[in-house]
Amino acid sequence: MRTALIKQAHDVFGPWSGVLWKDTSPTKLFDVWPGKAVYWELTCMLQADWYIVPQATDNDYIRDLGKWSPDLPEIIRRYTRNITAPDHIPFDEYDLAIVFDACLDPPSTSRALFAYHAQEHWDTLYTRSLRQPASGYELFLAHMMDAEGAIGSLPQAISFPYLHDVELMRSVFPVQKQDAVWVDWRTLMTLAMREVSESWTKDAEAAAVRLQELLVLPVHHRGRYFTQAYGVYDPPAWGDAALYLQALAGCKYYISVGRVAGAGQGLSEAASTGCLCLGQAENVYHRLICHPACLCDDIAEMPSRLNAIVHSKNLQAEVISWQDQALRKHFQRRPLELLREAIQVKAGNSEPVRNELQFQRGT
Questions:
Q1: Residue 87 lies in a domain
Q2: Has residue 222 got a pLDDT over 60?
Q3: Would residue 359 count as lying in a domain?
Q4: Residues 100 and 7 occupy one common structural domain
Q5: At what angle do helices 313-328 and 302-310 cross, to 10 degrees?
Q6: 250 and 306, same domain (yes or no)
Q7: Of 120, 132, 122, the residue nearest 157 (C-alpha)
Q8: With a threshold of 0.70, does the pTM exceed it?
Q9: 172 in the same domain as 186
Q10: Alpha-carbon gap, residue 172 to 242, rounded angstroms
Q11: 232-259 pLDDT, tens digit each
Q12: Interval 15-59: pLDDT, tens
């Protein structure tokens, strides 16, 4: 399925240069990708082309960027390359166009299926799209998994997670595991009794030291990344996403418990690299990925659950097998099949089906 990914110029996620798949590779993408790797596996799995269009919308997420740092728009403008006017994108060469924040008006005559992500689940665009996708789009891709679980009638919102590819991740980052724990920065902020909306503090650094003493394992984290809004620096930290995934892949365990927010992208990336993941039972991605022995109802359960895993080779093997099967099923095979089905429905080649492809809402 030929795929175009389209974002607007002031969006920090994804690459900061428009790039065609034929001109890049999984590793070369990081040369123009200074922030979180959230759509990197999606790009590689679909072998997608990236287009950056001029700034077109002013939604909650874009306004939040400016609130965090008034300099952000200028930094992004200075370093973003290969911007393409929407009418110069050859949409008819594609089966699928995923447009971030619905930042353009889809051409009504295009054969491509038009879908979109909202970059932040707290954006009013997200909640509005759950009720009705933006005009001209067939699908709203709800990454919080709080929409319908199967293709019904287009247009519609569909539960659609961030995609992950176990084989891709481990081939690009074939790192020897160390007996160390990677801890989500939100967990450390929880232990420091800070809100996740606050900047990284020395209290959170101290919490990491205390947790290391409790677990008797080295603790790694990326809290300092959040001293800058959305991890954006001047100049941008080109290749930082690859360095993060390399370091993450080197840890045997991953912990994300406490007052976690969002869908659970960090844990799903960690599972993709082969970490043994402990998560929060109330979080949708964690419930989809984590072995039952690794789900915590609260942060107080975490040390004993981790200890049980550390001291059982059999349980470790069971957890990895569980996670890998979950990733292939829920974060690769099912969502890709849903996209193919929606493309066929738009083309008039099939009726919607409700079978084993269906996601359960919020599970």
A1: yes
A2: yes
A3: no
A4: yes
A5: 110
A6: yes
A7: 132
A8: yes
A9: yes
A10: 9
A11: 888 998 999 999 999 999 999 999 998 7
A12: 999 999 999 999 999 999 998 899 999 999 999 999 999 998 888
